[in-house]
Write a structure and sequence with these properties.
The protein starts with a strand and ends with a strand. Helix 3 packs across helix 4 and helix 3 crosses helix 8. Strands 3, 5, 6, 7, 8, 15 and 16 form a 7-stranded mixed beta sheet that branches. It has a 6-stranded parallel beta sheet with strand order 11-10-9-12-13-14. The protein is an alpha/beta fold. The radius of gyration is 20 Å and the shape is globular. It has 2 domains: about 140 residues, Medium-chain alcohol dehydrogenases, catalytic domain (Quinone Oxidoreductase, Chain A, domain 1, Alpha-Beta Complex); about 130 residues, 3-Layer(aba) Sandwich (Rossmann fold). The longest helix has 22 residues. The mean pLDDT is about 95. It is built from 9 helices and 16 strands. This is NADP-dependent oxidoreductase.
Amino acid sequence: MKRFALKDYGPAKEVLIEIDSEPRLVDETHVRVELVAFAINPYDVALRQGAMRDVRTLKFPYVLGNDGAGIVTEVGKKVTHVKSGDEVIVHAIGGTYGEEIVVPGKKIVKKPAMMSWEVAAGMVTPWLAAYHLVTHLLGESIGETVMVQGASGAVGSLLVQFLKEQGKTVLASAAKRNESWVSQLGVDQFVAYDEADAGKIFADQADTVIDATKGGRAGEAGMQIMKTGGNFVALNELPKEQKKTGNYFSFGPAKEYLDFEALTALTKLADKLQLKIAEVLPFTLASVIEAHEKLEGHPAAGKIIIKKEK
């Protein structure tokens, strides 16, 4: 079984390798999935670079990847919601960079027929973040007007759509080049951060501000936009100096955030959600290296997906 693994921390070209692994056994609570597509995430890049080593130790060779989509080939006897032959969406702790994966049954749901393999693989982590942030972290306290900074990214764009489904007023910022993409998602007002100061334009208007920018670079403007006593949520780093009274949250995964619940919600909204796919690359080591290198820079909006040839 072909898989793409890390042999150490370091530059993509130096540490990403192709390995041949023995298939894992499937116990009564697990499912084997032949992967058709998997997504490359910024978190994968951080792991490879060693940026996460203080909180997550890797044993090499380590197969990266949390998000994938594929076809069920074997099912444990206690798993009843899928069967062999089903097309499924997968969220794994790691290991989706390969031809197949064995995961707990609670980590997969059936893929809606209208959803492409690329979108199914690319949706997973961004949707989990958007869903759990809105539904569990904030809940009723989110308010009626929400500002999404970094609205062109995978998480940001899904936040916009999920919030609009709930009837919220959504303010948004992104680069000018992404204005048409963000606008078509239904935002109520948009500011291009590279042309105008969103902090001044939207000052004191949002009950909740969500900073979904790369590196959390929009904190100053976000605090201006948040109403006094409102919520400020950062997907990356919170502002070092919190200049306005409010509730400040650094969002991350939590044990109480259930994958099966969130992925089931995704399947119910599948016909209403859009995800921009920047590029689909072939199932090769060179593609994985290329994707990692692109994510280290300033890539265009959209997910990079690795997909097998039919």
